[in-house]
UniProtKB/TrEMBL annotation:
UniProt KW keywords: Cell membrane, Membrane, Protein transport, Transmembrane, Transmembrane helix, Transport
Protein's recorded name: Biopolymer transporter ExbD
Family: Belongs to the ExbD/TolR family.
Main location: membrane
The keyword Transmembrane is annotated on this UniProt entry: yes
Protein's membrane topology: Single-pass membrane protein; Single-pass type II membrane protein
């Protein structure tokens, strides 16, 4: 007796449903990694002031070459000494107008924390990790000085106050109280960290 028909047919009606369910499963369970960037708060847009003269002694220059070496104020410096060198510059108070500065009051260094600028420049081939480490040390110099003044004025670290102020879960009444204190400390040592154009050689 001859065989009737070909091979048995497979019912593919539910394949689309299965594929759709698998797609939803993978979309829900897959995690997407995100790269952490630099946390920087940009200053507000302000019109440039006319005839601004910045004295060279109020600029603290930090250059990083492609080998990761630091040239600070035209001299080689170890990374471990960078924070202290930056703090000495910021806290100098050379013109005598800073009554909270505890520096050497060297007339050849920065006049006042409000006039002090740190200029950071790196080579195009500088390692990213070195660049970030140097930035952290310079920001750390500002934070150490701000912590000192916050302890003196409010018996608290500035970094703790700032973190609590920026935390969205902090009650608005507490944030309002912290706002003036954080600004007061920031005004004592304003963070003027300038990143110069990257050099190509």
């Amino acid at each position: 007796m001859p065989r009737r028909g070909g091979p048995p047919e497979v019912n593919a009606g539910s394949m689309a449903d299965i594929a759709f369910l698998l797609l939803i499963f993978f979309l829900v369970t897959t995690t997407i990694e995100t790269d952490a960037g630099l946390d920087r708060m940009l200053p507000p847009m302000e019109p440039p002031e006319d005839n601004v003269v910045i004295k060279q002694k109020n600029i603290f220059t930090v250059n990083i070459n492609k080998n990761g070496q630091l040239l600070v104020e035209e001299e080689l410096l170890d990374l471990k000494n960078l924070r202290n060198a930056a703090m000495e510059f910021l806290d100098n108070g050379g013109d005598g107008t800073c009554n909270y500065c505890k520096g050497a009051r060297d007339e050849s260094s920065s006049d006042n924390p409000s006039k002090a600028i740190i200029s950071l420049k790196n080579d195009r081939e500088t390692k990213y990790s070195t660049y970030i480490t140097v930035q952290n040390e310079l920001v750390g110099a500002y934070n150490d000085l701000r912590n000192r003044e916050a302890q003196r004025l409010f018996n608290r670290k500035f970094t703790e106050m700032e973190a609590e102020y920026l935390n969205p879960e902090t009650p608005s009444s507490v944030r309002e109280e912290l706002k003036d204190k954080v600004k007061q400390i920031q005004d004592l040592f304003p963070q003027k960290l300038s990143e110069a154009q990257t050099s190509t050689n």
